[in-house]
Amino acid sequence: MGVNIVLHRALTADFLALSSDSDSLLQRLTPCDRAALSQLTAAFNEVRPIAFLIGAGRARSRQVVDCFLATADKQTSVVRITGPCTDATSCMREVIRSIGFEPKDFGLTDLENIFKMFLAFQKDQGSRTVICIEETQDCSSWVLDKVFALAKQEMAETFGLFIILSGRRKLARVLNQHSPHAEAVLTGRHIRIAPLTLSETREFVIQQAKSESFDDASQIIELDQGKLYAYKGNYSYYLEKKEERLAIEQTTLGKAKNLFKKELDWMRRQPKARTTKSKSRIEDFYQIKKKHTSVEMIIKYS
Length: 302
Fold this sequence. Notes:
alpha/beta, Rossmann fold, two-stranded antiparallel ribbon, 58% helix
């Protein structure tokens, strides 16, 4: 079968959009995500054939991949498969389609030959090729076999191919089950996205809200310290009203502190013999103390 290779840069519209907005993407990353991005970039620069990006959820892994692709050289051809593949042939068809060829009814062998010729062409041009498969833990074993075969081919031919297998924690177990491809697994860089801290979780949610255009929302509900707060408005309205709520709570805390201090001083001055009136005030003191403590805790963790 004869195939003519023509110059083609597989830069999708999404990729071009990411390239023009890489700074805003980087700002959305948490420190843990930035560390994962740094490792992914290092693996690419080290000309490793494959990297495994493992995280607890899909959103953070996708953000790391977004930033990596946004900062890649524009001469790099990108193949991005965002869902699990059911078989090796359909996977290779997606790859071939992404680099600008119509796979038609070609079988797996023909598809592999076309892609190998494309990689050779890329190498002659001094260009790299990136294949990124997301949700890899749900791909069939046939797809993983094909991916690892491509990684082995890269180790032998050095075409400049870089494969990213992105997935959740289950992916680590899946990789351990592919002992026939142990060499490719060990050669690749294993990157784990660390769990978010409490402060990072808040920042991540805020950044996600901004990126998802929550200014179009009509109502936002917040769960804070076991209490639900409803804000009938968009994200900007929510930020404004939350700040007002926290200011009111801070004022309430100040008043509670002053009252608590006053009653505490009175308690310390009282003799051991109590009148009925003083006993009632003592009971009120413990109620004030309880309220003061709970308000202080709410302010502290808000």
